[in-house]
Write a structure and sequence with these properties.
Strand content of chain B: 5-15%
Largest interface: A-B, 8 and 7 residues
Distance between the termini of chain A: 15 Å
Number of strands of chain A: 9
CATH topology of chain A: OB fold (Dihydrolipoamide Acetyltransferase, E2P)
Radius of gyration of chain A: 14 Å
Number of helices of chain A: 3
CATH topology of the largest domain in chain B: Aspartate Aminotransferase, domain 2
Helix content of chain A: 10-25%
CATH superfamily of the largest domain in chain B: Type I PLP-dependent aspartate aminotransferase-like (Major domain)
Number of domains of chain A: 1
Largest sheet of chain B: 7 strands, mixed
Number of helices of chain B: 11
CATH architecture of the largest domain in chain B: 3-Layer(aba) Sandwich
Shape of chain A: globular
Shape of chain B: globular
CATH class of chain A: Mainly Beta
Number of domains of chain B: 2
Order of helices and strands of chain A: EEEHEEEEEHEH
Structural class of chain B: alpha/beta
CATH architecture of chain A: Beta Barrel
Oligomer: heterodimer
CATH class of the largest domain in chain B: Alpha Beta
Chain lengths: 131, 453
Amino acid sequence: MSEIPSGLKYSQTHEWIELSHDGTASVGITDHAQELLGDIVFVEAPEVGTTIAIEEACGVVESVKAASDLYAIVSGEVTEINEDLADTPESINTGPFADGWIYRVKISDSSELDQLMNAEEYAEFIESEEH
Amino acid sequence: MPYIPHTEDDIQQMLSSIGANNIEELFDEIPAALKDTKLSEVPSRLSEMDVQRLMNQRAAQDGTPLCFAGAGAYEHHIPSAVWEITTRGEFYSAYTPYQAEASQGTLQLIYEYQTMIASLTGMDVSNASLYEAASGLAEAVLMAVRSNRKSKSKRILMPATVNPSYRRTTHTIVKNQGITLETLDYDKQGGFIDPTSLPAEPGDFAALVIPQPNFFGSLEEVDALTDWAHKHKALVIAVVNPMSLAILKAPGDWGTNGADIACGEGQPFGIPLASGGPYFGFMCCKKAQARQLPGRIVGRTVDLDGKEGFTLTLQAREQHIRRSKATSNICTNQGLLVTAATIYLSIMGFEGIRQTALASHQNMTSLAGMLEKTNGITKVFNRPFFHEILIQTTKPASKIIEKLAEQHIVAGVSLADDYPELENALLICVTETKTEQDISLFVTQLDNCLNTQ
């Protein structure tokens, strides 16, 4: 059973987002997503300073099996990326919700967060996807 | 793989099992008006004996002229062992194997090829080759636009000194992706891109292409050009003659940080001149761009028992995995020609190609010296050269080529079609294959053609 921390918000494309107090949020891919992808070998995060739009491809997560697009979970401006992933992309496998964060974003429209799932809803979602 | 045609019985069996009366029925969806049932331009069949005779006659018509033409394809000596080994059954396939890892020998050969090309160009990574230089340059341009994250521009600066056919092919391939190729004019004295003439504020552009040697045979100021492009946050694409790299600076060492992508025509390495092909293109890049490099890449690894093995690597860039977002739809290579080139380089060694390059340069130096003393001939440009120069004569180049062909000499290449201002200019090349006598004969015949009527 994959880990689904409560307190985060989730998208149908298996990204998570965690809000900070300063109006920015961290984004990564879920434990379920990394299990499906297998060993991650490369991450192409969006550039710092670029504006991303919800549901549009903004990066790539590449595993030994496949290269998958990373979709923007919210719209906003990218403020920071996880530079450590260049050398240790496997952090996404070992700690998808911790060291495996991919980028931080300054959310431009917080109402977009209401469309995302909470942990319980996401658990049901992946359950339904599997059947 | 043997070619086994279907017998009439095979065909009947297949038709009856799918419930069709004849083969034509399989195509009945195509409106009759669109069908062309006769190939009127194709002559009726000949027996093998007759075909051989015909082809031998036609080959004999070409003769074995002394060749002083280059312009992108170069005559070098090919040791007999090269094609003897290349055409062994184990190697004799033009194709990348589908079950790649089952063909460890082929993968090892490609790995050796990549290693040689990367070390010659001073780059970190090489792919397994592309079709030829022109489409290689197009791929390099696409790659530069994809991978230059500092510039969102789709503008490429393309010197007029890049081989015109490479420029045309590149334009054809990239134009529908909104990429513009902006021509940089050449210096009329030197036949090169004068770095001091480059604008201080060129605006945003994705990459600068730098040919070395350039199409006129002149050497470019690669260090200054590279640093200028990098200063303006653009990438540098080197288009190089690989043979020249035995004596010229490797693109990876150009300027302060080196070129970012290097490509070019692999033909000088063991591939015979043959009506324009098949040749092969090579392409390499720095590690920072490795994931944007199109085509196949072979890597060395170990298996579960720790034994060395070879494998296709970074395939996630390729279209069978990445679909429409693949770096390129190129996922093949010129396997057979790369095999020949790898064997050529193994036999020659670095010292061998250095001597070949040096001998070619010395021959051109001596030819250029003799031509300057010939009435009616001047060197068009005053820049250093490798083994090719442009000469100006008192007659149109096409006339000279025609005249010398009667003496079984291929005098060079006329540039009039691509550079109308160079109508009387003839692009000539000498490699290590020419003797002193050949060179003297060429000079005498040119002299006769220009100075006696």
